[in-house]
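note to self — DONT lose this again. spent like an hour looking for the file last time. sequence + predicted structure for the chain T wanted, 673 res
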Amino acid sequence: MHIRKLKIAPFESVSSSMFGCLLESVRLGPVETRNRVFSPPHGTTLGAHGTVSEAMIAYHRERARGGVGLIVLEGMTLHPSYSFEESFLYAGSDRIIPGLARLADACRTFDTPVFGQLFHAGRAVRLSRDGSRPVTYSASDVPDERYRVVPSPMPNEMVWEVIESYAQAAGRLAESGLDGVEILASMGYLIAQFLNPKTNLREDEFGGGLVNRMRILREILVRCRERIGPDRTLGVRITLDEKSDDGASPEETLDVCRILDQDDLVDYFSVIAGSSASMRGWVHVFPPMAVPHAFVAEDARALKQVVRKPVLVAGRINQPQIAADIIQKGHAEMVGLGRALIADPEFVNKLARGEPDSIRACVACNQACVGHRLAHHAVSCIQHPRSGRETLFPEAETSAPSRKILVIGAGPGGMKAAALAADSGHDVLLVEQSGVLGGQVRLAERLPGRAEFGGVITNLEKELEASNAAVLLDTPASEEVVREHEPDLIIVATGARARLPDSPVDGIRFMDSWSAIEGGARAGHRVVIADWACDWAGLGLAHKYALEGHHVRLLSSGTVPGESLQGIVRDQWIAEIDRLGVETTPYARFFGAEDGTAWFQHTVSDETIVCEEVDTLISCYAPSSNRAPEWLEASGIPLRTIGDAVSPRTVEEAILEAWLAISSIGGPVAGRS
């Protein structure tokens, strides 16, 4: 059998010379960074009862080794009124010091300074210590829309106590050997609640005019400087545009920054957008792919015009050319690549080596990064499952004996398995019965606003092209293929197929969601979507047909359309279809259809829901696994089945199981691929 290497269309190459500005050093007060890329603060859920764990050290060490110029650790709590040590690092105790010291030493090996961020959420609390709802504190008793809490106004003496807690926590960070301290005064959290005249209605020394509203931040900064001394950097993170009706205005925040700069209270300003206080604001804290790239850059530019100290910026910066453009235009001194560094810890090293095209670009799906964190799991990435699992996937020092591996199916799981196995020194053949790579991702990327998700396949194509894996398209797995390749191991990554529910349908155009996305049949004007899955297909098809001018009704079996998606992605998408006039109905189980009428059943009350005048009915029902054929099971060759071929799920599980499958046979798979 003739085996041909896959020929992929050349990728658009970008000149590495344009990225020289990103590799320049920059000074933040007394600390100099080796380049202009930083890892912004983000929750990892890798702590251990409020302290630093070995898993957290390994996570940040990987980014330091990957070349990042600065790491700002996740926000650490510091006062009993908001501690929750099961979810956050707690800098209100000396127990934090030893772990932070080990983390700082691990990153210093790679010449990467580490700053610690201190924060108090104020009224933005949904956590509980025992199941009961805790008392939350804020500047005033202004209700929080997103968290649906009414805070208690923080007593004056408690404000001073919190201020001193910041100072003591900063002292602990300095004692641990961290290079700097950042005060979080952004995103609608406690300090921002004091700064904002809409949430600070106090009449004491911490309320009223700007000077009084700033008092809490000023006192924190002065006292923190006293504790950390002149040899460590002190910065502040702020938000100019909270994207919330009750947020402070950009002009008000610029006034705050101008005063801090004039009084020489900080060494730098770090700017981000969004707020925890509203759904719209929260979408912009962790912006999904529908939000424009580098959307905070203009805020950074505005800040640069009123302050002398360096400005740092983060927010949907996932490509080197986007980051370089911000620096070249003088909008900021450093760019933060949060999710981009989760997807590819080697981002900066690849730039330095002149290999920008090999960077694994983040696609802003929010699934395993933000999604894991908000579900209290360790942060990771659907494309790079080693992130957050560095201690579970340690780098192998020696290669296992080379084996012949046949991978069946070139969806994301099969592509990843083939690339990893080939990189581990194995003889790999990947066969795919269709003429294209990518599996269901090729469907998802065709939906409105989802083209960037196709980057998952673009990234995997690059990895395959760089490996020694042989690829055959238009080649169904057959006994002949198996016989001629003589594999020692077969990876079954055959994915899933669409199916329709076993419900009576007559006299109406009826199709599954995959067929609808592929456009094989035209839809009539009045479209009803029966959304069992509550994932990207239902929302995406509703969006697609509404944009095309159809009348669309989306009936979902969950409590909300997109219930299976990460909440920020779902909420943004629901806003889009609502703007287009899509009618949505939750708690609706598809029952059947006949002659232009579709029937649904309320999933709780069992009451009938009737949709009349239906031209086209689209079903987003549970797909069915394409399991290994009986002849393959009986071949006697060891099999590893991964992804949807085991059970229909998502890209995340397919790629993770590819890692696990190749790890199980040895080799340096757990390296930095």
